[in-house]
Amino acid sequence: MEPQVYIFVSVAVVSAISLVGVLALALNKHLLHRAMVVLVSFAAGSLLAAAFLDLIPEAAELVDLDVLMPAALAGIVTFFIIERILHWHHFHAEENDIHPFTYLNLIGDGLHNFMDGIAIAASYLVSVPVGIATTIAVIAHEIPQEISDFSVLVYGGLGRKKALLFNFGSALTAFFGAAIVLVFQNMENSAVLGQLAGFAAGGLIYIATADLVPEIHKEHRLKKVLAQMVAFGLGIALIWFIIGTFE
């Protein structure tokens, strides 16, 4: 199967799963709110595993470290700048100026999904196992992220139907990110692929450490803290299993 097929199927699945997660929130808000603590921890573990166990090692086979490390750093810096410019943070629904923030959240979510498309496409161009592992990691963080974004839109004054429509529309920007990466595929340049993989790894590291881990630390109840630790480990273990199975 051609990499392009894997890429666009994976992006479509990610977008669809995000919509399913938001629909689930509309049906059972309290249940998913309680599960959010575990979902965020699982997402953080899987994102870090995808970056450190998949993307960076594979990229290191394509480019030297003096090229790979700046590319990864560029990914971290790019995600940081996007969040700072838009004043947008994952999993923070309470804002003082909520109505303008609603639209900023849509823009930020669209840009973030655009980056997800880049990460997925770049991963598949490295290898199919890396692409599958990255897709799973993206799905793991996409569900709680989209649930949170939907909550922001509703809290900001949008009706549930309009919030669902807008939120799903922002998820579709991942296709544009994937399409841009495919332009580089025609260059057949391993250095470009290595840099893209490094950039994608930096983006995943930023999401996990800057957005998800701080949310995890807000929980202080012992049972939920233990559940977080287990979920975090399961996220890492799942990606590790995917690597071993498909390699």
From TrEMBL:
Topology relative to the membrane: Multi-pass membrane protein
Coiled coil: none
Pfam families in UniProt: Zip (PF02535)
GO biological process: intracellular zinc ion homeostasis
Gene Ontology molecular-function annotations: zinc ion transmembrane transporter activity
GO cellular component: membrane
Membrane-spanning residues: 6-28, 35-56, 68-86, 164-185, 191-213, 225-243
Localization per Swiss-Prot or TrEMBL: Membrane
InterPro entries with a match to the protein in the record: ZIP
Keywords linked to the UniProt accession: Membrane, Transmembrane, Transmembrane helix
PANTHER family in the cross-refs: ZINC TRANSPORTER SLC39A7 HISTIDINE-RICH MEMBRANE PROTEIN KE4, ZINC TRANSPORTER ZIP13
Name of the featured protein: ZIP family metal transporter
Organism: Candidatus Iainarchaeum sp
